[in-house]
Design a protein that fits this description.
The protein is mainly α. The protein has 16 helices and two strands.
Length: 416
């Protein structure tokens, strides 16, 4: 059934588009964003040779992207409601193609670092408008499924990068492999220019006042911290699993990339189911608590020296965990703070999370360079995942205690 939300004009001058097409295009935005983010990860060792750097240095190529993304995600969160989401998305795709094409030919490490930062900054134009449209264009009863389906784009992008990038590098060379992401970006840009609908224009809220109101709410800061610690934990394994499989189990970069893609396949397959569960009564909180607890258990399982099977099962389940704690958290926050603050909340939540993701490359790369020990990395991830779980459960219990107290006061008032 077609829904009038902006796209190709009909006879009345209004535009219609099928929701399925809209969701597919929005999922494509996350494919591009996550493929660009992960493109360097399965090629850490070839990049070390290319630039003559150590693991800490090559980790900064990943960190630079996520740092740029985190900084500009905050900016988009604060002022993004002043611009049409469609314009932001098309701009993001065009710049993504430009910066990634230049990175493919960058022979200097510092230039490569700058381009990765710009590429991350550009991707801020993709994520927040995508999630905002997914929340605002669909009713509450559909949002979990919609965001779950959109979130599959993250799994496709990350998994595709981990598998395809080393294959391209092996057969065509490093430069050719890094030309694949800009080709994908340009292809989606051509499709989106013709088919992506424009959301109905809304009067922007007063940014300073809205941000000040959010900053006075303790639950807002609690959720920012939850997003930061959770993403830092998740990206510990997402960033360093290919290197772990290469060094610890003797896999080639292609084999390690393919096995690491199990994380992303799990995200891809579980995201729609997570969305369906999130749409059930109490489902938002249920999937967030369950996903957070799952990550804690998986990291604890791989702190001792595990078998390959244990590592792969844990990595797969952490992918499910990330699916259950990413889009549902954006949905939880967007609904908690109201429609007028949705774009701002999604942007700031994502910025906080991406600062954590950025630190995963540098902090864990430093730990690996200093101690030459992956169990230290997994133990740190377990502690961070536990912190996220405790903070979120505490928030939920406080909410329920507050509701219970209000109910008791109302009952006492009636009795009087």
């Amino acid at each position: 059934m077609a829904v009038p939300i902006g796209g190709a004009a009909n006879a009345t001058g209004q535009t219609t588009v099928r929701p399925g097409l809209t969701v597919a295009l929005l999922a494509g935005m996350l494919v591009v964003h996550n493929a660009q983010r992960m493109s360097v990860v399965p090629l850490f060792d070839p990049l070390r040779a290319r630039y003559g750097i150590d693991y800490a240095g090559v980790g900064t190529l990943f960190a630079a992207y996520v740092l740029g993304y985190a900084i500009f995600q905050a900016i988009i969160g604060l002022v993004g409601d002043r611009f049409a989401p469609r314009r932001l998305l098309l701009t993001g795709l065009a710049l993504s193609a430009l910066w990634s094409a230049l990175f493919a030919f960058a022979g200097d490490f510092h230039l490569a670092l700058a381009l990765r930062f710009l590429l991350g900054a550009t991707s801020a134009f993709l994520y927040t408008p995508t999630m905002t449209l997914g929340i605002l264009l669909f009713g509450r009863a559909q949002r979990g499924r919609v965001l779950g389906t959109i979130q599959t784009g993250a799994g496709v992008g990350m998994g595709g990068a981990l598998v395809v990038m080393p294959l391209l590098a092996m057969h065509f060379g490093l430069v050719a492999s890094f030309l694949a992401p800009p080709v994908v970006s340009l292809t989606l840009l051509a499709l989106a220019t013709r088919l992506l609908p424009q959301a109905e224009s809304k009067t922007p809220t007063r940014g300073a006042a809205a941000t000040a109101r959010l900053s006075r709410r303790p639950d807002f800061w609690n959720l920012l911290t939850i997003n930061f610690s959770g993403m830092l934990a998740s990206y510990g394994i997402l960033t360093w699993l290919p290197t772990y499989l290469t060094r610890g189990f003797g896999f080639s970069t292609v084999g390690a990339g393919a096995l690491s893609a199990l994380f992303n396949v799990a995200m891809l397959l579980s995201a729609p189911l997570v969305g369906i569960l999130a749409d059930r009564r109490g489902g938002r909180i249920g999937v967030l608590v369950g996903g957070s607890a799952l990550a804690v258990g998986c990291y604890l399982a791989i702190v001792p020296t595990p078998t390959l099977a244990v590592v792969l099962v844990a990595a797969t389940l952490i992918g499910v965990s990330m699916s259950a704690t990413t889009a549902p958290m954006m949905l939880f926050g967007g609904e908690r703070f109201g429609p007028a603050a949705t774009s701002r909340v999604v942007g700031l939540f994502s910025s906080s999370a991406q600062i954590g993701a950025a630190l995963a490359g540098t902090i864990f790369g430093f730990l690996l360079a200093r101690y030459d020990s992956f169990p230290i990395i997994w133990a740190a991830c377990a502690a961070l995942a536990l912190a996220r779980l405790v903070l979120f459960v505490t928030l939920v219990l406080r909410d329920r205690a507050r509701v219970g107290a209000v109910g008791e006061l109302a009952s006492e008032s009636v009795d009087r």
